[in-house]
């Protein structure tokens, strides 16, 4: 029997890694990093021998889906990697950025330990740039959306657009076993039909078995149009009052969505006499990659790209790559929008701008992404009046806005609608969700699809499909 064993993103949302064996061919679907409270699990050995894995299939290039790939390679994986070309390109910049952060954290800790003579006790970073180089030397197959790819005599793969971030996919695996035709789908992360930058979510056709993410299986998102209207209102009000808007943003997808909205505001003359700074080297690289894949963009941007227009660039936009350029933003006293990482304010250049701007009541900060508990971003939206930025206390006098409708994940109704398009579905396995959300999603699924069994996957549980 074909077997699935989850080695991550089972009863939690990070570390996505699912082992699948069909007719002695061993595959992994994603090999992501554990984040937040599960971070220490990245150090653990894999629950399988990396050298025995034949294929690594990547759904998309978020770090919780690709972040342990160089560790997999370091520990012996020599197989073939299959992903869309956009996923593979984004994976490179994301992994290089992760290695840089590991290295910086290691150097800081090393100096601290050295002062007390304990530097030998320090663990080396999870991987370094050499391991990433080795990863990108491996055989890679470009998956093309909706084109079946024959992996072996009895296994065929089809990648379809998951509408989540550029290049994101859900993967259908059709196989023959004991003269029976079977299929299984791994959802990766599911977006929704209407996206501001990329093409929307596609539907699957037929499968008996589905492993589906459940991140927002318990809730319905705020309407996108209402979120856009609120976003524009805050920007206009702050700029009209000669203030400065700070937007902590994730480098992938959210930054590009913010850029197309700002460009639209300039085009419609909703915004004038104002500078926009994209102050994040990673977000600048990601935006360049988005420009390289016009065919993956939605109809509006595809057609403007076909006329030679870059959907993300406009006259007022300045891309500040190096620190020297970034420091010149300090000289801007009014009417500016600064987009900087990290998205949850746990590091990056946004901290520098907080130090310089948050004390001023004319300014505003707009949170456009989910802020996990324990992060500085969460502290600010929870209403703290004083934050500590790199050892310095800063008053929070700027107006704080949280706009939640930009999620790259589908909500409960999007997921149910997507699932309802599969014919012959017998079994749904829930992965990639927090326990309480999965329980709620399981109850809803059992009500909506009475004949389909639903099971919440446990880590390292053997599932026969
Ligand atoms: Zn994702």
Question: What are the SSEs and their pairings?
Answer:
Blueprint: E1 3-6, E2 18-22, E3 25-29, E4 55-57, H1 63-66, H2 69-74, E5 80-83, H3 85-115, H4 129-135, E6 140-142, E7 149-152, E8 155-161, E9 169-177, E10 180-186, E11 209-213, H5 224-240, E12 244-248, H6 254-267, E13 275-278, H7 281-292, H8 299-306, E14 317-319, H9 323-327, E15 336-340, H10 350-357, E16 364-367, H11 376-381, E17 386-389, E18 392-395, E19 399-402, H12 412-420, E20 427-431, H13 435-448, E21 453-456, E22 462-464
Helix pairs in contact: 3-7
Can you offer a commentary on this structure?
The termini are close together. The protein is globular and about 70 Å long. It has helices at residues 63-66, 69-74, 85-115, 129-135, 224-240, 254-267, 281-292, 299-306, 323-327, 350-357, 376-381, 412-420, 435-448; strands spanning 3-6, 18-22, 25-29, 55-57, 80-83, 140-142, 149-152, 155-161, 169-177, 180-186, 209-213, 244-248, 275-278, 317-319, 336-340, 364-367, 386-389, 392-395, 399-402, 427-431, 453-456, 462-464. It folds into 2 domains: 3-219 and 408-464, Ribonuclease Z/Hydroxyacylglutathione hydrolase-like (Metallo-beta-lactamase, Chain A, 4-Layer Sandwich); 224-402, Rossmann fold, CATH 3.40.50. The protein is built from 13 helices and 22 strands. With 465 residues, the chain is an alpha/beta fold. 30% of the residues lie in helices and 22% in strands. The strands form 4 sheets. Strands 6-5-4-3-2-1-22 form a 7-stranded mixed β-sheet. Helix 3 (85-115) runs antiparallel to helix 7 (281-292). It binds zinc ion. Zinc ion binds at residues 60, 62, 164, 189. Zinc ion (ZN) is lined by residues 60, 62, 164, 189.
């Amino acid at each position: 029997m074909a077997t699935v064993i989850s080695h991550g993103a089972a009863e939690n949302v990070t570390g996505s890694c699912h082992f699948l064996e069909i007719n002695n061919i061993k595959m992994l679907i994603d090999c992501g990093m554990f984040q937040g409270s599960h971070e220490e699990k990245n150090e653990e050995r894999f629950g399988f021998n990396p050298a025995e894995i034949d294929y690594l299939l990547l759904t998309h290039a978020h770090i919780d889906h690709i972040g342990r790939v160089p560790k997999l390679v370091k520990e012996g994986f020599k197989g073939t990697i299959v992903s869309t070309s956009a996923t593979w390109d984004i994976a490179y910049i994301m992994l290089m950025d992760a290695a840089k952060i590991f290295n910086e954290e290691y150097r800081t800790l090393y100096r601290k330990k050295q002062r007390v003579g304990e530097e030998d006790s320090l663990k080396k970073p999870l991987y370094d740039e050499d391991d990433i180089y080795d990863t990108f030397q491996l055989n890679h197959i470009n998956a093309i959306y909706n084109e079946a790819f024959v992996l072996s005599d009895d296994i065929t793969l089809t990648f379809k657009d998951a509408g989540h971030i550029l290049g994101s996919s859900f993967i259908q695996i059709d196989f023959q076993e004991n003269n029976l035709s079977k299929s299984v789908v791994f959802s990766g992360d599911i977006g929704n039909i209407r996206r501001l930058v990329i093409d929307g979510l596609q539907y699957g056709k037929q499968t008996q078995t589905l492993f589906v993410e459940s991140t927002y299986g318990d809730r319905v998102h705020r309407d996108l149009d209402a979120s856009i209207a609120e976003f524009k209102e805050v920007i206009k009000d702050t700029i009209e009052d000669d203030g400065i808007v700070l937007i902590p943003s994730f480098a992938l997808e959210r930054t590009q969505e913010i850029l197309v909205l700002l460009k639209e505001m300039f085009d419609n003359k909703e915004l004038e006499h104002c500078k926009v700074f994209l102050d994040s080297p990673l977000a600048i690289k990601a935006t360049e990659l988005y420009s390289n894949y016009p065919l993956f963009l939605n109809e509006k941007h595809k057609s403007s790209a076909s006329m030679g227009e870059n959907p993300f660039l406009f006259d007022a936009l300045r891309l500040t790559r190096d620190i020297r350029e970034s420091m010149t933003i300090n000289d801007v006293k009014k009417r500016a929008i600064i987009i900087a990482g990290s998205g949850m304010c746990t590091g990056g250049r946004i901290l520098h701008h907080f130090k310089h701007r948050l004390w001023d009541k004319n300014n505003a900060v707009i949170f456009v992404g989910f802020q996990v508990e324990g992060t500085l971003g969460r502290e600010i939206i929870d209403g703290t009046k004083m934050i500590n930025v790199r050892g310095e206390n800063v008053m929070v006098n700027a107006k704080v806005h949280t706009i939640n409708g930009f999620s790259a994940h589908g909500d409960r109704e999007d997921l149910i609608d997507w699932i309802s398009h599969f014919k012959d579905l017998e079994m749904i396995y829930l992965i990639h969700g927090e326990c309480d959300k999965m329980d709620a999603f399981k109850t809803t699924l059992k009500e909506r699809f009475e004949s389909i069994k639903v099971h919440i996957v446990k880590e390292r549980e053997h599932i026969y499909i």
